[in-house]
Design a protein that fits this description.
The complex is a heterodimer. Chain A is of the alpha+beta class. Chain A is built from 13 helices and 19 strands. In chain A, the strands form 4 sheets. Chain A has a 7-stranded antiparallel sheet with strand order 6-5-4-10-9-8-7. The longest helix of chain A is centred in the last third of the chain and has 38 residues, at 451-488. The longest helix of chain B is centred in the middle third of the chain and has 26 residues, at 59-84. Classes of the chains: A alpha+beta, B alpha+beta. Chain A binds chain B through residues 113, 261, 286, 410-419, 422, 430, 432-435, 438-439, 443, 455, 458-459, 461-462, 465-466, 469, 472-473, 476-477, 480-481, 484, 494-496, and chain B through 25-26, 28-32, 122-123, 129, 131-139, 141-142, 166-171, 173-174, 198-204.
């Protein structure tokens, strides 16, 4: 099979757009190049060259989905033959931006567990072909698993985002990275405001609250716009053993998440969402590259109860009853935060005393009670629950994340004790999975639990992994026997 | 076409490889067939496991040399910096080097005393760390592959490191340094056999 012929001009056009910033520099940097007409010639010339290259690329790109593998032969200069076993495909995602939607083409991405980036990407095929590939891959995967019939089952809608949730998502999801961006932008704007006031102090008094409001306002607007465009029309459905999602206003994404391959579930609620009783759910598979955010989000935002229900329909964990770390963990945080607060007070005092700046340094003393409150809050939101088939771990005050880890998905278990933890007889238990968010700092862990308990839990989790693996194996064996029986019909299969 | 597979019969290049694989799974589906099969291909699990093991004592020297090298780098940096900055002179570098090297020696000794690994029935257990003590359990079902690695300093002291990879994000963390090449090879084969015996079908 070949790509869609429209992909030739689209890909050529993309390379021109990528060149655009170079051209902008050229235009600004040296007007001697011939100005606008020179640039025009360069653009057209590049487009023609790119068109020729893409034509060859198109002619030499072929894919074939047959049997157990997806075969891709590609490459203009160096040729590449790939065979991707269908049973190993983790996620299949389709994305279309505005231009691609107008032309009726789509990009399809396949993720496998190996490697750090997307395994295969078909740019571009017609939208119908992308849909066909997606459902065909799903069908073949089910066939490969040899469970039940290979017909696509009914599609059951699990979640659709409402307008209210979308607006809330924009408000709650104010991205802190945006805040920092806006604060960088502000000093550029604020001097012009300050000039209006003769007295700099009055100016500051006026501009500071204004600036704060502006920062929050702009950040909310931007994040609201991002949330609106990326989660507009979000829909999650279940078909057989796969989750299907769709989202996006300008760029449409749709994809599949195989439940077979789910590693962990993460329910996260930030401070604001918790107040309002909302939460979001992320499903981790081993396919995505780390920090590939959004694509694995199963529910962007919904009422907490619904989120938990949906999480439970994916992994049937029991009602969670968290056990908190011992109280001496809280003492540890209190000491830690108090030391930081004391340092801040010391720095403020020193700055007041030894530099020209004089200010009410003792205001910094307010940090000390804050440190104690912070320690309590941190302790309050920690928790772990060891269930029959799952271990549930919770952490975080600003953004509280609750991670559900099936024992079957555990890769390694470890408990670690720093010097300070040893002094108080505490330890942290880390449960490592192949989930994609593992490479970032948030590993599923039970922070500062009793050292003896941590050692017990380490062995418990490892033992339960063994039981889970054995149970899986015997289930598969039974399934295989059943399928053999079904194939042979009346012929007796002697198990003994 | 393919010379390496010359003695393999069959017109289909995959024929020779895929057929036995499929057959073995079908054999495994019959409950009675698995037990003798596992027994014949893999040595008894009991014989592979053992008591807690310590590293070779020479690893202390390797660690000391490694820390001495980093101490030397630190010392040179300090010497260069303090030859420019007014209080102190290049001699600060020597002090920094001595301090860091002494610390490195103490740490190497402690590290050796704490390091321990055990090949258990269904998992590999490691205990290590001076400041932060870490106990790791790596189940055999989750092993992807096992490597043996020898760095230049290790080679000079006749030592090797065995690295166990899992699909987890901390995979490469499970490495056991300070083994003689024979011990490393032995451990690698043991782990291989144990991983086969554990037969992880779906590691991810």
């Amino acid at each position: 099979m070949k790509l869609d012929p429209l992909s030739i001009p689209v890909r050529a056009g993309e390379s021109v757009v990528r060149l655009a910033w170079v051209l902008v520099f050229a235009l600004v940097g040296s007007p001697a190049l011939g100005g606008v007409s020179g640039i025009g010639v360069a653009v057209v010339g590049w487009f023609v060259i790119a068109l020729a290259y893409q034509l060859v690329y198109y002619q030499r790109f072929e894919y074939d989905l047959s049997g157990d593998t997806l075969d891709i032969v590609s490459g203009v200069v160096s040729r590449r033959n790939r065979e991707i076993p269908i049973g190993r495909v983790q996620n299949v995602d389709i994305s279309r931006n505005v231009v691609q939607r107008a032309l009726g083409i789509a990009q399809i991405n396949l993720e496998t567990a190996g490697g750090s980036s997307t395994e295969a990407s078909l740019r571009y095929v017609s939208f119908e072909e992308a849909k066909r590939l997606q459902s065909e891959l799903g069908r073949l995967k089910r066939g490969a698993a040899s469970t039940g019939t290979a017909d696509p089952g009914p599609e059951r809608e699990l979640f659709a985002v409402t307008r209210k949730e979308l607006v809330l998502l924009g408000l709650i999801g104010i991205d802190l990275r945006l805040l920092s961006f806006v604060t960088v932008l502000l000093p550029v704007i604020s001097p012009s405001l300050r000039e209006r006031f003769a007295d700099p102090l009055v100016g500051l008094a006026v501009t500071a609250p204004l600036a704060a409001v502006a920062v929050v306002g702009i950040a909310a607007l931007i994040s609201g716009a991002i949330a609106l465009t990326s989660y507009y029309g979000f829909r999650l459905a279940r078909q057989n053993d796969e989750l299907l999602y769709e989202r996006g206003l300008l760029q449409r994404f749709s994809g599949t998440i195989p439940l077979e391959k789910v590693q962990t579930l993460t329910i996260s609620e930030n401070f604001l969402a918790r107040r309002l009783g909302y939460a979001s759910l992320a499903v981790e598979t081993a396919g995505y590259a780390p920090n590939d955010e959004g694509s694995q989000s199963a529910i962007p935002l919904a009422e907490r109860g619904r989120v938990v229900d949906l999480a439970r329909s994916i992994e049937s964990f029991d009602g969670i009853e968290f056990e908190r770390p011992p109280r001496r963990a809280r003492e540890r945080y209190a000491v830690r935060y108090a030391v930081v607060a004391a340092l801040a007070v010391g720095i403020a005092f020193a700055a007041d005393r030894y530099t020209g700046l004089t200010f009410a340094w003792y205001v910094a003393l307010a940090l000390v009670p804050l440190a104690l409150v912070g320690a309590h809050l941190k302790w309050l939101h920690l928790g772990y629950d060891v269930q029959q088939d799952y271990v549930v771990l919770r952490e975080g005050f600003w953004t509280r994340t609750t991670t559900v880890v099936p024992y079957y998905r555990v890769q390694t278990v470890l408990d670690s004790q720093s010097v300070f933890q040893r002094r108080r007889g505490l330890a942290s238990l880390v449960v490592d999975t192949a989930g994609s968010s593992g490479l970032t700092s948030r590993q599923p862990r039970a922070l500062d639990i009793d050292a003896g308990r941590a050692a017990d839990l380490r062995e418990t989790v490892a033992d339960r992994l063994q039981t889970a693996v054995q149970r899986r194996r015997s289930e598969r064996r039974r399934e295989r026997l059943r399928s053999i029986e079904a194939e042979l019909g009346d012929a007796p299969v002697d198990p003994a | 076409m393919d010379d390496t597979d010359g003695d393999r019969a069959g017109s289909n290049p995959f024929g020779g490889e895929t057929t036995p694989a499929i057959r073995r799974i079908e054999d495994a589906s019959a409950p009675d067939a698995t037990v003798p099969d596992a027994e014949t291909t893999v040595p008894d699990v009991e014989s592979l496991t053992g008591d807690p093991q310590t590293l070779e004592p020479t690893i202390r020297s390797v660690w000391m040399i490694q820390s001495a090298i980093s101490a030397a780098v630190l010392g040179v940096i300090a010497a260069v910096v303090f030859s420019v900055v007014s209080p102190g002179g290049p001699w600060v570098g020597a002090v920094v080097f001595a301090g860091a090297a002494a610390l490195g020696i103490v740490f190497s000794l402690l590290k050796y005393r704490i390091w321990m690994y055990q090949v258990r029935d269904d998992s590999l257990y490691l205990k290590r760390g001076v400041l932060t003590r870490v106990n790791t359990v790596a189940p055999y079902v989750r092993i992807q592959h096992v490597d043996t690695r020898r760095g230049p300093i290790e080679r000079a002291f006749g030592l090797a490191t065995t690295v166990v990879y899992t699909a987890g994000s901390r995979g490469a963390d499970v490495s056991i340094p300070g083994l003689t090449p024979e011990r490393a090879d032995d451990l690698q084969t043991r782990l291989k056999h144990l991983a086969i015996a554990a037969e992880g079908e779906d590691a991810v």
